[in-house]
């Protein structure tokens, strides 16, 4: 992962996510950071976003963004290339557009900002970003303390395993090699089921070189099961896939409602498939 897109709404929690990314940068080989902010968006009409231009707001936001860049440069390792991008697009549209233009490998976002980002990361827009971001997305909890990701948890529902792991290994193979890998099968089905067994064998073959530790969570309460596993095994980062829209929805909705403990401990790397 060489090129990073750092989302900001200029809040304390966005800054905390930036600090997390700065400490992660030398470990993951980050070479370029694009600092990104979008604002004042009107819902899309058809396939194109409709925006209202405001020169005064634009000028003020640009000053804020430049100030953030000057500050964050001091946090990141020397030698990293920097660029700021200020736009008036709907967030998911703008993020995907910028990722394509800047050849972004990783998007980083905090979990509780103000204004638009507060809604983004505390409600349905969280899922919209996760499900529509085409680039790996690192979600950093507001209260997370940075820990070198020595223990990474891959959560899977044992469906379309090859598709998901192909995508994961293309984007994060080197990251996994630097970590102790745990795999949790989150399913209501018996592992002895023929179809489930076939997916398990596929996963074991594809992850053999990482020597992961496998576990099962046979429960309908996905969020609680993952929460417990993360706490018991001191997981530093969780990996999941946004094709599992139902699973992600239940994790986020439950974690927010019950203020799940894992939010304050483990960042989440979401891989698109």
TrEMBL record:
InterPro entries: Rossmann-like_a/b/a_fold, Universal_stress_UspA, UspA
UspA domain residues: 1-141, 150-271
Gene3D superfamilies, sorted: HUPs
Family per similarity comment: Belongs to the universal stress protein A family.
Name recorded for this polypeptide: Universal stress protein family
